[in-house]
Amino acid sequence: MSPVADATRPAPAARDDAPRAMLAGLRVVEVAGLVAGPYCGRILAALGADVVKVEPPGLGDPARRREPFLGGRTGPEDSALFFSLNCNKRGVTLDVGQPAGRALLGRLLERADVLIEDLAPDRKAEVGIDAASLGRLNRALVAVSITPFGVTGPWRNYRAYELQVFHAGGEGYLLPNGLALELFPERPPLKIGGLPAQYQAGLSAAAAVAAALIARAGDGLGQSIDLAQRDVQLVLSCMALQRYTDGVLEHRTTRSFRYGGVLPCADGYVALLTLEQRQWEGLVAMMDNPEWTRDERFRDPIRRAEHGAEINRKLRAWSRTHTVAEVLARARRHGVPVGQFHSPADVCESRHERERGFFQEVPHHELGFIRTPTFPFRFSATPAMLRKGAPRLGEHNRAVYQDELGLSAEELAKLVSAGVI
User: Fold this and answer.
1) Which secondary structure element, helix H or strand E, spans residue 243, and what is its range?
2) How far apart, in whole angstroms, are the C-alpha atoms of residue 29 and residue 105?
3) Do residues 34 and 119 touch, judged by C-beta distance below 8 A?
4) What is the dihedral of CA 284, 290, 295, 299, to 10 degrees?
5) Which positions ≥6 away from 247 have C-beta within 8 Å?
6) What's the number of CA atoms in the CB half-sphere (13 Å) around residue 46?
7) Which 3 state secondary structure label does DSSP give 305?
């Protein structure tokens, strides 16, 4: 979903009666770009942690150059992806490839509780954020490394994007299925849209950090967390993997249900799944008991599976004569599992999500308010809140390097001139 700009109102004033933040006082350093690491940082920041995002000077996080852009602009402060992922954070620039940059990163980490990083394993020691170096620097630090394939194993230094990570987990091999498989039986494996593997990895990383912080509360010691994005996908594909260990190799036809699936309606699409006999009977009643359903070939699940293509043709002929709302209403009356395919507009304007407060309007430094997604969890006493928008590139350099680390204005100017900051 692309955040929606609304420049008609001023940014809200700070409130003294705001709910207490769960992670207030927690100091986090984020050395990560694009999605997985920043999403982990976004969660911690929304729960009250002070997240300092470290970006390379000049270009910054690659997400700054990713579409879609807000307000018809294409600058580094206008990427909807970057804005959504980096709300509540402070931002500094730092070239960790230079010795002076590594020294400043070390000073940040000496004061930090958590490090989020996504550097390749062969670069961690070079930058001074491998497990051994971090242990000498700050024994209480919880450091999560988010990489495509982990910091061990023969693939540890492989680079990957969403496409490779998603398919490395095996789930893509099972797609497409259902109606798509019936219509295009020779179609190659597909990846679902968006960046699900990245967001799932970021959410998993945040959970791992929370667990490590709980452990630290007991003995005062931090630890390193090795999170492989591919392993997250393997967990999500665990049923197919379990079946393989039982001697069954799943593929698109074994995963597909032989009838039902995606059905076209007069104004959209629905998904239908009738795994149980009572659900099939409800489907028959939902369609007003058409004559063809009394055919002996459709009396039991095994026979229906054998004639799934014929059933699907008849189901589609029926569904095309009804609207999505009509199909859903009938399905509810007869206990038939049917789901609607929602467009982005449906989701953004959903009364259900509006009442749950899933979308929040966050102030942008120039465009007013930006409506952006929040989180799938709700805390009653310590809610996750997006209080401010994403930082401009290097916006907090002076506050962090001068006010907090004690650099003089002259030292900061020299580092800027040398391309370190």
Assistant:
1) helix 238-245
2) 9
3) no
4) 10
5) none
6) 27
7) helix
Nearest 5°: phi and psi at 295?
-60, 140
Rounded to two decimals, the pTM is 0.87
**From CA 326, how far away is CA 313, in angstroms rounded?**
19
148 vs 163: CA distance, rounded Å: 11
- Cis ω on the peptide bond leading into residue 176 (within 30° of 0)? yes
The count of residues in the chain is 421
One-letter amino acid at 137 equals: L
Sheet of strand 142-147: strand arrangement: 90-93, 50-55, 27-31, 114-117, 142-147, 224-228
Distance CA 115, CA 121 (A): 15
Q: What is the dihedral of CA 286, 289, 295, 298, to 10 degrees?
A: 20
Beta bridge mates, 79: 69
Nearest to 88 by CA among 325, 387, 362: 387
Residue partners of 90: CB distance under 8 A and separation at least 6: 50, 51, 52, 53, 391, 395, 396, 399, 400
What's 400's DSSP letter?
I
Q: What tens-digit pLDDT sequence spans the chain (421 residues)?
A: 344 444 444 444 444 455 678 999 999 999 999 999 999 999 999 999 999 999 999 999 999 999 999 988 888 899 999 999 999 999 999 999 999 999 999 999 999 999 999 999 999 999 999 999 999 999 999 999 999 999 999 999 999 989 888 888 877 777 766 556 666 666 777 777 889 999 999 999 999 999 999 999 999 999 999 999 999 998 887 666 665 666 666 666 655 556 788 899 999 999 998 889 999 999 999 999 999 999 999 988 888 888 888 998 999 999 999 999 999 999 999 999 999 999 888 899 999 999 999 999 999 988 899 999 999 999 999 999 999 999 999 999 999 999 999 999 999 999 999 999 9
DSSP single-letter state for residue 94: -
The answer to whether 33 and 89 are in contact (CB under 8 A) is no
- In terms of Cα–Cα distance, which of 99, 148, 141, 94 is closest to 120? 148
